[in-house]
Amino acid sequence: MRHQKTQPQAITLVAGIIVTASERFAVGSQAAIGGALLASMNTASEYGFGAVIASLPGFLVVADALRAIPDPRKPWPRNFGAWRRA
After folding, report:
1. CB count, 10 Å around CB of 59?
2. Position 30 in a domain
3. Residue 1 carries which DSSP code?
């Protein structure tokens, strides 16, 4: 059995496949990185906007009013409205 030398065409084919795959990976990675940066910047801006709104004096009034609304998933207390009857 004779030892065959590696064909230059096979080496060229493998090199071409590697280069093409790496170029496609680079293009796909750029789109993924762009999407991740967009999501993180959006989150950061919403967080900053929320901090500005929370620092306004009227926010506490609105937040307290919203907290006073009872949870509709919880049953009403049995003595609800007893303060009106007294």
Report:
1. 13
2. yes
3. -
Per the structure, the complete domain to which residue 65 belongs is given by 9-70
Number of domains making up the chain: 1
At 18-71, the pLDDT tens digits run 888 887 777 778 888 888 899 999 998 988 888 888 888 898 899 889 888 887
**Residue 63 near residue 57, CB atoms below 8 Å:** no
Which two three-digit tokens encode residue 23?
Answer: 């170029």
Q: Which residues contact 58 (CB under 8 A, 6 or more apart)?
A: none
Give the Cα separation of 40 and 48 in Å (integer). Answer: 12
Cα first-last separation, the chain: 109
